[in-house]
Every structure is written in structure tokens, then in C-alpha cells.
Design goal:
Number of strands: 0
Distance between the termini: 22 Å
Structural class: mainly alpha
Helix content: over 70%
Order of helices and strands: HHHH
Number of helices: 4
Amino acid sequence: EGGAAYREAVRSGREWVKFDSADVGAHYWLGLSLQRIGELKEAVAELEAAQKLSPDSPEIRQVLKELRHGK
């Protein structure tokens, strides 16, 4: 089941963010994993953190736009 893998990715991602809160990739991949398990509010928060660290990233901007518009 993919859900278990995403839950493990969330657990690992949270550790990664604790270890290096300035890592754009940590916030981005944690946000995507949270999205996959339906934790949308937390996913948006992580992706917003990634966007603050990398404001010019079109990929982060697009994912946030889709999440905010329910896609």
C-alpha cells in the first residue's frame, strides 16, 4: 500500500526538517508527502516554508496553487 510508504516519508521528512530547517528540499518533499496522505493544511504550511526559502521556484508555486484550489 502506497499510504504506508507516504506515512514513512512524512516521518522521515519531519526528522529531516528538524535536522535542517533551512533545507528547501526537506520542506518541499515533506509537503508533497503530507499531501499524499491527506494532511493538506500541514502540506500547505510545509510548502509555504519551502517557498519562503526559494521564492522564485515555479514548481513550488504551482504545487501550492493546486493545493489551495483543491486540485
